Amino acid sequence: MRVYTHPACLAHQPGPGHPESPARLAAVLEALRAAFPDLDWREAPAARREQLARAHSPALLARVLDARPEAWPHRLDEDTLMSADSAEAALRAAGAVVAAVDAVLGGEVGQAFCAVRPPGHHATRDTPMGFCLLNGVAVGAVHALEAHGLARVAVVDFDVHHGNGTEDIALREPRLQYVSSHQAPLYPGTGLEDQGARVLNAPLPPRCPGLAFREAWRERLLPAIDRFAPQLILVSAGFDGHRLDPLADLELGPEDYRWLSAELAALARRHCGGRLVSVLEGGYSLTALRECSVAHLRGLQAA
User: Fold this and answer.
1) What average pLDDT is seen over the chain?
2) Which pLDDT score, from 0 to 100, does residue 15 have?
3) In angstroms, rounded to a whole number, what is the distance separating the alpha carbons of residues 200 and 225?
4) Predicted pLDDT at 94
5) How many whole angstroms separate alpha carbon 183 and alpha carbon 123?
6) How high is the pLDDT of residue 69?
7) What is the number of other CB atoms lying within 10 angstroms of the CB of residue 34?
8) Can you spell out the DSSP letters for 114-180?
9) For the packed helices 136-148 and 86-105, what is the interaxial angle rounded to 10 degrees?
10) Model-level pTM?
11) Whole-number pLDDT of residue 72
């Protein structure tokens, strides 16, 4: 297992008291280093503008990358803020996914995890939002299609919030599949129904337990991925469905994330030669982040 990260991802400061704090990533890095002494750690490169432009409009790239915020924090919307270091952090976060895709498709490694921030799955083609500046998982998915010539890439999202940005980008690209479980009602208020055969949503009610979460994946979402037969699986790994998370109301635990991660790894072995790239998204309890990031990697590495 290879892990991509970069110190710049700790420098992004979205403002005092903001839940998407550098402490989130610090907790994940600390937990992974303690639990997995043999991980292959790599420094994430910065994504190139032409790689980002496959998924994002020129207007979004200008707004995120060309901003020179003199006042801190620089507000993009009510929840999404930037400091002077934020553009570099977003470039490294997206670049981690591109590098991970290159590594697994080049045969260097079977699986990779991108321990990065800010998260990305709410950023649409045109709009940064929901703590997200650039949609790294979508950038990586389209990179796999265009740079590596793949015909089918699946993006799997188990963050507690619906990845409206990834859905927006997937709807424009017929070679992408997007499947998501998420709490509803909850921000951003999307993902209430499927959007055709390639975009499947499983909204879960507040206080949903792990058994119902697993049932949604076992009965609907995992079979859909199996039918799609992807050549690469990318995962938006948000751990804010944990029962301790302060921003949502699901009742999941580390064992649920480990189970789903093992199921996704099994699908990757069946269809992709084991090739899978996972990207950190949300999760706002430091305890849950530590527990679930370790459970996620243990599930991915399960035989």
Assistant:
1) 96
2) 87
3) 10
4) 98
5) 18
6) 59
7) 10
8) E--SS--TT--SS--BTTBSS-HHHHHHHHHHHHH--S-EEEEE--SS--HHHHHHHHT-TTEEEEE
9) 40
10) 0.97
11) 63
Question: Tokens 């069946």 belong to which residue?
Answer: 270
**pLDDT tens-place string over residues 224-278:** 999 999 999 999 999 999 999 999 999 999 999 999 999 999 999 999 999 999 9
Model confidence pLDDT, tens digit, residues 118-174: 999 999 999 999 999 999 999 999 999 999 999 999 999 999 999 999 999 999 999
Helix (H, G, I), strand (E, B) or coil at 229: coil
CA proximity to 154, closest of 51, 269, 54, 272: 272
What DSSP letter does each residue of 21-34 carry, written as one string?
A: -HHHHHHHHHHHHH
Query: Which residues is 40 bridged to in the sheet?
Result: 2
CA-to-CA distance for 160 and 1, rounded, in angstroms? 25
* DSSP code for 188: T
CB of 126 within 8 A of CB of 59?
yes
Total number of residues shown for the chain: 303
Alpha-carbon gap, residue 185 to 202, rounded angstroms:
12
Q: How far apart are CA 94 and CA 109, in angstroms?
A: 19
**Short-list 161, 167, 199, 209, CA closest to 181:** 161
- On the CB side of 239, CA atoms within 13 Å amount to 32
Q: What's the confidence (pLDDT) of residue 71?
A: 56
Closest CA to 147 of 47, 289, 224: 47
Cα-to-chain-centroid distance, residue 233: 12
- Cα end-to-end distance, the chain, whole Å: 13
Report how far residue 172's alpha carbon sits from residue 231's, in angstroms, rounded to the nearest whole number. 19
Q: Compute the distance between CA of residue 246 and CA of residue 96 in angstroms, rounded to an integer.
A: 28
pLDDT of 70 over the 80 cut:
no
Looking at the annotation, which residues are catalytic? 122
DSSP tag of 251: B
